[in-house]
Design goal:
alpha+beta, six-stranded mixed β-sheet, globular, about 400 residues, about 30% strand, 6 helices, 18 strands
């Protein structure tokens, strides 16, 4: 089983309160870096409202955490970039800026860069905070950089250097968030379901170029322009479900007010396929403590190799109805208990977590993130894995206030 180590660089930024989470964790050949932001050792934001300045700092922070493990930006395979956008941010300029800093710090020395999914949001956790970026990296157990190859699928909207639409390293394949936007930046269609079909076809195309297919998907994250109602979410969810066979991958569905240029959705995928071309055995968790309001082929939890993926856990009941309505703390507790139950199906506990991401309802106010962090942290023994916390104005279904997704690994 993979040995693990944790990172908290000397002088690195901190939260307002002591938490069990660490900035980074290495387990075997995989490294997870929690959402990095521009703050000081007391937890106060720096360079408020300056997206360009914060972006440079945040990319350097990722590199700093990776260097605690003997790695660097050259080893990054996937980036998730959340940024505050009131409608005035040019998304291509933002991605170009992130890429420039990655290259300046030694990323993608061979031109084969990581997959990336940018997500514009109305705000982040604290006033003046403009960007939060998380990372996955892969490094050989002997410290050497591992081989990788990128997808160069023609006809997809161009990504700025050094980012790739898809990246394969060993048995792992990461696909950048695919949209319904045409190569000339026009929306492929007006309705969300049709854009979802376009995005899924593109995901399948990238996977095929890297020797995998949708049956190899272990984790799917979907962002969509949504209003927090089932009526908006359901048609797109049904369309995406059409591309998978049950039991399929774990999923997390999240709305954001805008994606830009008329985009309705972005779908990113993590897949696993043996280097010899053989499918990797997997085991799925049976139904958890709650259900979606419609039948979907997605698993609550899935184990493939040394990784256990738990899809976004929601405060729903067995009929798909929200519980503990209006109470973020109570719903967070329900999501954490649901996560515990799924992990138990694989003989694991919460302390086996290597990466957790919490999406919670709230505005850009310290007290909201502090309450959410304190409760989540209380479920773990220090040192815990890496964490990212992202506030949202609404969720995929009415009365939902939190979604928590988790990646775990068995103990040594």
């Amino acid at each position: 089983m993979p040995a693990r180590s944790h990172a908290w660089p000397r002088g690195h930024w901190d939260w307002y309160q002591h938490l069990a989470f660490k900035h980074g964790i290495r387990a075997g050949e995989l490294i997870f870096v929690g959402g990095q932001v521009d703050k000081d050792e007391r937890g106060d934001p720096l360079r408020p409202h300056d997206l360009a300045a914060q972006t440079g700092v945040v990319v350097r922070h990722i590199d700093t955490v990776l260097r605690e493990f003997g790695a660097g930006l050259a080893d990054v395979t996937r980036l998730g970039a959340f940024y505050a956008d009131d409608g005035s941010v040019d998304p291509d300029a933002f991605l170009t800026d992130v890429g420039r800093h990655v290259l300046d710090l030694g990323g993608a020395p061979d031109g084969v860069g990581p997959a990336i999914t940018p997500v514009p949001l109305p705000w982040l956790a604290l006033p003046g905070m403009m960007v939060e970026i998380e990372a996955v990296a892969r490094l050989g157990r002997d410290g050497r950089r591992l081989p990788r190859r990128a997808a160069t699928s023609p006809g997809l909207p161009l990504l700025p250097p050094p980012f790739s639409h898809g990246l394969r390293s060993g048995e792992h394949v990461w696909v950048s968030g695919q949209s319904g936007r045409a190569a000339d930046n026009r929306a492929a269609a007006d309705d969300l379901a049709t854009q979802t079909a376009v995005a899924m076809e593109r995901v399948a195309r990238v996977l095929a170029e890297l020797g995998a297919d949708l049956d190899d998907a272990v984790k799917v994250n979907t962002w969509f322009a949504g209003d927090g109602t089932r009526a908006t979410w359901e048609p797109a969810a049904r369309e995406r479900a059409r591309w998978f066979r049950a039991p399929g991958p774990v999923v997390t569905d999240l709305p954001t007010p805008r994606l830009g240029r008329g985009e309705g959705t972005r779908v990113e995928v993590w897949a696993m396929r043996g280097e010899d071309g053989a499918r990797r055995p997997r085991r799925h968790a049976p139904a958890g403590t709650w259900r979606w309001p419609i039948a979907l082929p997605h698993a609550m939890g899935l184990r493939c190799g040394d990784l256990v993926f738990v899809g976004g856990q929601l405060p729903l009941d067995g009929e798909g109805r929200a519980v503990e309505r209006g109470d973020l703390v109570a719903q967070t507790r329900r999501a954490m208990e649901a996560t515990r139950a799924v992990l138990a199906e694989f003989g694991l506990g919460l302390d086996d977590m290597v990466k957790q991401t919490s999406f919670y309802h709230g505005e850009s106010r310290p007290e909201v993130i502090v309450a959410n962090q304190r409760l989540r942290s209380s479920y773990y023994t220090e040192p815990a894995g890496a964490s990212t916390g992202v506030p949202l104005p609404r969720f995929a279904l009415e009365d939902v206030l939190v979604t928590i997704e988790t990646i775990a690994m068995p103990p040594d």
